[in-house]
Amino acid sequence: MNKAKLLAEILKPGFREHELMRDHTTIQVGGVADFYYEANSIDDIVNAVKAAKKICLPYFILGGGSNVIFSDYGFPGLVVKNNAKNISFMNEKSQVIVDGGVPMSKLILEATSNNLSGLEFLYGIPGTVGGAVYGNAGAHGQSIGDFVKNATILIPGEENEEPQIIQVDNKWFEFSYRSSKLKKIPGLKKPVVLTLKIQLAQNRQEEIMRRLNSVKKTRWDTQPVGMSAGCIFKNPLPETLVNVSGRGSKNMPEFPKERTAGYMLDHAGAKKLKNGNVRVSSKHANFIVNSGNAKAQEVRQLAEQMRDVVQKKYNVNLNEEVEYVGQW
Question: Which residues does the UniProt record annotate as the domain FAD-binding PCMH-type (predicted)?
Fold first, then answer.
């Protein structure tokens, strides 16, 4: 039995072959994935990973499509779109249990309706809760890792092992700046976030809305609207820069303005850079914008140019925040 037929029988509705990945990412670049599956529940995700593992097929769990750049050559395996969207509030404990596929802004707005506060700093980020935890998303001196209490994780296991669903606490994730344990485990061994328990705090709805409006305005004023993957580079970590202050959490240091990637890129002249159908945003020098019909290779080449101008001016090597996926 060939792989396509086997996957189609196991996954059934929501399974497709030869899916163009540019249609599923915010920057809208990327080639064709061999197989694609819309998983609408936790069981769907588990079944998809088990099926891929059974036939030794690479898989990638896709959230909202931000911070991800698929190769022009596509993905030689199964892309699983996480659409699991259950949310359950425990107001007496100021906690929420949420599926990894829930859009971050949806969670924040529903938390606001329940007078629960904490994640406002992530409002407007075009991604899912699972994706945010995967990359320990953050802003304004805070990161989502600080709010994760525990989680249900799918562990694929070794080649001859059956995947297992386990409960893990916050420490398991090894959260660090813009990273987690999930990012560091390769290929078929990469765990998958199924559900998360997040600790929030009671607050007045009016105060939460005030914060949301402030965050929304800041993002609107400082970040481009359109086809973009989000910030291309992380801010340089304290060990690579001298005299970096750290007011924020241990996972999300707050950098002096002149030590952020955006500032360095701006003052190194990155806003003048372009490559084919992509250019550096005139609004924020750490964003690459797709002007239309761009190729993934154009994005990556432009990112290298951006890195080079900062290296030349500041002798600082910037590391990507975005993830390059597929064959490059």
Answer: 29-203
SS3 103: strand
Q: Identify the band that residue 244 occupies on the pLDDT scale cut at 50, 70 and 90.
A: very low
Q: Give the DSSP per-residue string, 258-327.
A: GGSHHHHHHHTTGGG-EETTEEE-SS-TTEEEE-SS--HHHHHHHHHHHHHHHHHHH-----BSSEEES-
Q: Where are the alpha helices (DSSP H) in the chain?
A: 3-11, 42-54, 104-113, 129-134, 181-184, 205-222, 261-267, 296-314
Q: What's the CA gap between 97 and 92, in Å, rounded?
A: 13
Task: Let me know if residue 213 belongs to a domain.
Answer: no
pLDDT of residue 257: 66
pLDDT over 70 for what percent of the chain?
A: 93
Residue 282: how many other CB atoms lie within 10 Å:
11
For residue 284, what are its two tokens?
């924020």
Active site positions, annotated: 178, 231, 321
Residue 39 belongs to domain spanning: 3-82
Sheet holding 75-82, edge to edge: 15-20, 32-39, 75-82, 59-62
* Burial class for 18, CB neighbours closer than 10 Å (0-12, 13-18, 19+): exposed
Closest CA to 194 of 84, 50, 112: 84
The total domain count for the chain is 3
Q: How far apart are CA 154 and CA 280, in angstroms?
A: 38
Per-residue confidence at 1, pLDDT binned at 50, 70, 90?
low
Q: How far apart are CA 72 and CA 94, in angstroms?
A: 44
Q: Is position 212 within any domain?
A: no
pTM assigned to the model = 0.91
Distance (Å, whole) CA 180 – CA 186 = 13
Contact of 10 with 3, CB cutoff 8 Å: no
Q: One-letter amino acid identity for 91?
A: N
Residue 168 in domain: yes
The CATH code of the domain that includes 285 is 3.90.78.10
187 DSSP assignment: G
